[in-house]
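User: I've been going back and forth on whether these two constructs are worth ordering. Before I decide, could you fold them both?

Assistant: Sure. I'll take them in the order you sent them. The first construct and its structure tokens:
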Amino acid sequence: MFNQFQGRMLLSHNFDVNPDTVPALSREEFAQVFQSGLSAYKHLQCRLVNHPHWTVEILFPTNEFSPQQVGELCAKALAEKRRSQQLSTDPIPEILVLGGIKTTPPTSDSPDALQPGNWGVDVVETSSGEAFLQAIAWDATIAQKPADSVFKVELKKA
């Protein structure tokens, strides 16, 4: 299926907006956003995972896509879905895709758990990306990490 240059990314969803702007998504609906939104890219494989924190697994060939590029495609897929679901004239939420590579031992032997070398990615919908990043101390969190072990994608309100 894939060669040894396969990347694995697990997505979680952080919905930090008023549900009157866009509806909350179930785990299945969240997974469907990426299964549909990334379907044009035949080498990206998405599936719903059975895990309390992680929702979606994306497998990607690292010789074709960087983790940052996959994150950008995820942000665009979610933004497109949200534009189609807008419940008011308010702008769609800001979208953050925050990724980091796991370097510590796994916390579970579940095949759907994050493993060393995998990318754990938080997909955030928020009214203020800047306030969210400050609240989680993003800059301090990544300050000591190698640049190639984290990524951030931001889609601001249009």
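The second construct, handled the same way:
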Amino acid sequence: MQRRPSLWPWLCLSFLVIIADQLTKAMITQHFALGDSQHVSSFFNLVRAHNAGAAFSFLASSSGWQRWLFTAIGLIATGLIIWQLQVHRGQRLISLSMSLIMGGALGNVIDRLVHGHVIDFLDFHWAFLEPLFRGGHFPSFNVADAAITLGAVFLIADELKKMVSGRAP
């Protein structure tokens, strides 16, 4: 009887994402006041921003109910991801993507529960973004957001790989 691959490496990866996310946010809150910015390069600043909404500050100006909605979504997503990790044991790319998404989602859930908002601090800006974003500044984000995005990219890559190989449903 063949042994099924363990979920532990993927759960540990999610945990490492959470740790990296929370440590970087702690450093920012320790050294930056809300609204502070530190120039790092011609296209990058460290900032301290708070986002009570979701991606691109969606629903950020709502009265506070969104905190609980996005917390619930993150927790429900975590449950679904753990189930998907069990279903897709042994499939490394999908497991990697799910682990990154779960770690990022839980990192932001922790912020919502502890602070009532998500702490963002990575500020990239380029002139070509000016038509889309004020001053060419892409909305600030954090390690959790980057992990979610990278996980989504890997998830798409996994689906494209299946399509190319003819294994797509």
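Notes on the second construct follow. The chain has one domain: 10-32+40-165. Strands lie at 37-41, 44-51, 118-124.
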